[in-house]
Amino acid sequence: MRVVSGIQPTGNLHLGNYLGAIRNWVRMQDALEPGSQCLFFLADLHAISQPHDPAELKRATLEMAAALVACGIDPARSILFNQAQVPAHAELQWLLNGTARMGWLNRMTQWKDKAGKNREGQSVALFAYPVLQAADVLLYQATHVPVGDDQKQHLELARDIAQKFNNDFGGGEEVFTLPEPIVPPEAARIMSLRDGSAKMSKSDPSDMSRINLVDDPDLVMQKVKKAKTDPEPLPSEAAGLVGRAEAINLVAVYGALSGESTDQVLARFGGQGFGAFKPALGELLVETLRPISARFRELLNDREELDAILARGSAKAREIGRPTLDATYVALGLVR
């Protein structure tokens, strides 16, 4: 079993990033049986499909690498790297562009959403983004790819490209493995501390709307204390939270950190006001994030170690991907 998954490097990492995506990667790593393998990459090549600041992208890539390691990705057990250090991703994408079809890409929901009405003004990279995603997983003969609802269509496209390539150029051999989806456990959807109807986001102008991974304990407690709530006490069961977005969010955060269901959390805190619940939530956040924050800061201050982690991971990734890239050239009749 070989699991491959990528994440775009974003700066100002917060609690939503951790509970929404990174923690599932750690769980996948820890659940793998001997002989299986996880490859996790920072999708910096995908990031340039839209306008970006080069210095910010470089900083965010290193910050994401630090966050992944701090949160539990072990470079000795998983292969962690950034795409830009493995040119075979872009190379294979070009080779697969001859198999991908314009009609397939035109149907991609995310292309329609991101391009909006100004399709003519978008980059070719944004349009061909799903072909690079296909290359990301096919390069390593991935057997499984974790997907959420928003990525199912892209994995189906990768399978379509692989199947057509095998049929057209395989000569009876399977050049590419058709990856199967893994639907990870439902990730916690963490909302803003200032607006329970909006996702927690780094782009929110108010820093009080989010818990950052680098926040110190005092700031975490302050943010939780000032989080928006309503005057009603917590109910004793989940049905009583209907229509109370901020209460739902804080209870969800507590449950995600403690491993309890909403009903289990409410069984303990039902009938109590937020004056009692918020300190308990703050303490749980502080204890959970303390080791992550400490390791995160340590890594951010040790550029040499971060560079070494990504360099080692990239070298391993290049080695694993080389046979597939060579086989693709041969299948296409190109001289290597």
Structure notes:
- The protein has 336 residues and is mainly α.
- Helix content is 54%, strand content 7%.
- It has 13 helices and five strands.
- The chain has helices at residues 15-31, 44-47, 54-71, 88-97, 102-106, 109-115, 124-138, 152-169, 217-225, 245-258, 262-269, 274-300, 303-331; strands spanning 2-7, 37-42, 79-82, 144-146, 180-182.
- The strands form two sheets. A three-stranded parallel sheet has the order 1-2-3.
- Helix 8 links the parallel strand 4 and strand 5.
- The longest helix is centred in the C-terminal third of the chain and has 29 residues, at 303-331.
- It starts with a strand and ends in a 5-residue tail after the last helix.
- The model has no long low-confidence stretch (mean pLDDT 92).
The number of distinct helices, counting runs of at least 4 residues, comes to 13
Gyration radius from CA atoms, angstroms: 22 Å
What is the ordering of alpha helices and beta strands? Answer: EHEHHEHHHHEHEHHHHH
Percent range of helical residues: 40-55%
Mean pLDDT: 92
Any low-confidence stretches, pLDDT <50, length ≥5? none
Q: Please outline the major beta sheet.
A: 3 strands, parallel
Strand content: 5-15%
The span between the termini is: 29 Å
Shape type:
elongated
Strand order of the largest sheet: 1-2-3
The tally of beta strands, per DSSP, is 5
Main structural class: mainly alpha
